[in-house]
């Protein structure tokens, strides 16, 4: 597992940091870290934006979800069915915010 972490995350980040540092005037590592952080944030922005949007949509549906929970509190299967119908009607994937 550690080797997979090194191959997927550590080595590319380290190589990018070395590359940026090598092309910085004076080899400023601090500035290279800041630049690398900005690059990484730009790369993951679409995922984090989608997760934030999904969370906002779920927040908007909270009153309806609470009503479903009250109406079907003794029927868990029916409650789950109605909840997923609500998600489907509003085109929301409740698990999309779990990615990030």
From TrEMBL:
Main location: membrane
Gene Ontology CC terms: plasma membrane
Subcellular location: Membrane
Pfam families in alphabetical order: 60KD_IMP
Record's keyword annotation contains Membrane: yes
Signal sequence coordinates: none
Coiled-coil features, chain-numbered ranges: none
Single annotated GO MF: membrane insertase activity
Transmembrane regions: 29-47
Keyword Iron-sulfur: no
InterPro entries linked: YidC/ALB3/OXA1/COX18, YidC/Oxa/ALB_C
UniProt topology in membrane: Multi-pass membrane protein
Single GO BP term: protein insertion into membrane
Domain Membrane insertase YidC/Oxa/ALB C-terminal as annotated: residue spans: 30-99
Keyword terms, alphabetized: Membrane, Transmembrane, Transmembrane helix
PANTHER family: CYTOCHROME C OXIDASE ASSEMBLY PROTEIN COX18, MITOCHONDRIAL (PTHR12428:SF65), OXA1 (PTHR12428)
Family to which the UniProt record says this protein belongs: Belongs to the OXA1/ALB3/YidC family.
Protein name: Membrane protein insertase YidC
Native source species: Candidatus Nomurabacteria bacterium GW2011_GWB1_37_5
